[in-house]
Design brief:
The chain is globular. It contains two helices and 33 strands. It has about 475 residues and is an all-beta fold. The chain has two domains: about 25-375, 6 Propeller (Neuraminidase), CATH 2.120.10; about 385-465, Immunoglobulin-like (Sandwich). A five-stranded antiparallel beta sheet has the order 2-3-26-25-24, with no helix packed on it. A four-stranded antiparallel beta sheet has the order 1-31-28-27, with no helix packed on it. Strands 4-5-6-7 form a four-stranded antiparallel beta sheet, with no helix packed on it. It has helices at about 20, 265-270; strands at about 5, 30, 35-45, 50-55, 60-65, 70, 80-85, 95-100, 110-120, 120-135, 140-150, 160, 165-170, 190-195, 210-215, 220-225, 230-235, 240-245, 280, 290-295, 305-310, 315-320, 330-335, 340-345, 350-355, 370-375, 395, 405, 415-420, 425-430, 435-440, 445-455, 455-465. The longest helix is centred in the middle third of the chain and has 9 residues, at about 265-270. Keywords: Signal. Pfam families: GSDH, Por_Secre_tail. This is PQQ-dependent sugar dehydrogenase. InterPro entries: 6-blade_b-propeller_TolB-like, Glc/Sorbosone_DH, Quinoprot_gluc/sorb_DH_b-prop, Secre_tail.
Length: about 475
């Protein structure tokens, strides 16, 4: 069993012509701590970007609500259209929504998408798996893993997320059928958990059911941290947008509870129904959408924070997590001049990619909208190009919990994690990749040494596991 997962994060920029690697013109800049973040446009003239996922092929995978699935080259901005869904129904807030990739994409090139369609005159939602051909540039062989879910022109969710345990989460909205959020026999107003073949995990809270959590109104952001913690962003009615810490089997209150359990009737319901209160709420509402975790050294002041894309408030919000991740520290807003923001992902180089949603019927699109914006600290120089020892490497986060990333300057023949007694506890041959993810699950808290070996020599870094 390999305890170190190859992340296959090769530095594509080194192989591209200089013209292709030239930096795009800056649209704006803003300070984040001591760093200056530059905003540029990767690509333009899109139509309601709904999802952005950084793929193991080092491309950005994108969905647009009208039904197109594409790969976007992060070096050139070139959009490679793979498929426009033939049966998508893009009406109101419905259409093509979330996307996820199989974690063993090289050998299992499966792409998961969730979208709305029409069946017998009724709007529905389904989760479909496609097979990707890199040679042909196509998505074929659609397999419906879950279908027939009630939908509406609003409140359909739906974000997808593959967890570290190899299962798939899918958020669903209440489809304007509010009581169904509390009905565990219904798939609306839920976070669902499936195996990657569509079967139901034996460890789900309700045997034989895909329901993982319930009592949701319209969750549209979902992220897992390296320590396994799960967080979701959720739209409230005219009050109480939420960030929730997701825990298996918990009830999140809707429609009886809006935000905290702070009214007498809500407190009674919460006590009797295992309700998990949100970490934070917003009234007036801000329309929270895509959610990621940022912990890269490129922008140090953002490390240990959730980054949240906002639709109504048209900005990017930094939500620092307190130690233990059980509360959120005071937030800071950025990126306030580009309209509605919905999709967000982070590259292994610490760049943040954000998709605008100004053509969704509620925005005021500029002539080049919709766009994918790039947020980066252009002064940051990664270890791989610093004038340092040939095999100097970085580990982040450090201290770490369940995972840490090793960023290597050159191809490395072996990585070994040893305890302070010198015993090897993890080993891997990285097969020429420049980055690898250390799976730290099962290790006791303490200090370890990570050894890297290559033709250039050997190097060792200390790693603290919490």
């Amino acid at each position: 069993m390999n305890y170190l997962r190859n992340a296959t994060l090769a530095f594509w920029a080194a192989a591209l012509p200089l013209a292709a690697c030239a930096q795009a013109p800056a649209l704006s800049t803003f300070p984040v701590g001591a760093a200056t973040v530059t905003v540029s446009a990767l690509t333009t003239n899109l139509n309601t970007v709904w999802e952005l996922v950084w793929g193991p092929d080092n491309f950005i995978w994108m969905t647009e609500r009208y039904g197109r699935i594409s790969r976007v080259d992060p070096a050139t901005g070139q959009v490679q259209a793979l498929l426009t869904l033939p049966d998508v129904t893009p009406t109101g807030e419905s259409g093509l929504l979330g996307l996820a990739l199989h974690p063993q994409f090289a050998t299992s090139p499966y792409v998961y998408v969730v979208y709305n369609y029409t069946a017998a005159g009724a709007l529905k939602e389904k989760l479909v798996r496609y097979t990707y051909s890199a040679a042909a540039g196509t998505l074929t062989a659609p397999l419906v893993l879950l279908g027939g879910i009630d939908a509406a022109t609003s409140h359909s969710g739906s974000r997808l997320l593959v967890l570290a345990d190899g299962t798939l989460l899918m958020t669903t909205g209440d489809a304007q059928q509010q009581p169904q959020a509390q009905n565990t026999a219904s798939l609306n107003g839920k976070i669902l958990r499936l195996n990657l073949d569509g079967s139901i995990p034996a460890s789900n809270p309700i045997p034989g059911s895909p329901v993982y959590t319930f009592g949701h109104r319209n969750p549209q952001g979902l992220v897992q941290l390296p320590d396994g913690s799960l967080y979701s962003s959720e739209h409230g009615p005219n009050n109480d947008d939420e960030i929730n810490k997701i825990e298996a089997g918990r009830n999140y209150g809707w429609p009886t509870v809006e935000g905290y359990c702070n009214l007498p009737a809500e407190a009674t319901f919460c006590a009797a129904n295992n309700v998990r209160e949100p970490l934070t709420t917003w009234t007036p509402t801000i329309a929270p959408a895509g959610l990621v975790y940022y912990n890269h050294p490129a922008i140090p002041a953002w490390r240990g924070s959730l980054l949240l894309a906002l639709l109504k408030n048209a900005s990017l919000l930094q939500l620092p997590l307190a130690a233990g991740g059980q509360s959120i520290l005071p937030s800071t807003g950025y990126l306030t001049t580009f309209g509605r923001l919905r999709a967000i992902c982070v590259s292994p180089q610490g760049k943040v990619y954000i998709g605008t949603s100004n053509r969704d019927g509620r925005g005021a699109p500029a002539t080049t909208d919709d766009r994918i914006l790039v947020l980066e600290n252009r002064a940051y120089v990664p270890t791989a190009t610093r004038p340092a020892a040939a095999l100097a490497f970085d580990i982040f986060p450090n201290p770490a919990h369940r995972q840490a990333t090793v960023q290597l300057p050159v191809a490395t023949s072996r990585l070994t994690v040893r305890d302070l007694a010198g015993r090897a506890v993890r080993e891997l041959q990285p097969d020429g990749t420049l980055s690898a993810v250390l799976d730290l699950s099962g290790l006791r808290a303490g200090t370890y040494l990570v050894h890297a070996e290559s033709a250039a020599g050997r190097a060792t870094r200390k790693l603290v596991v919490e």
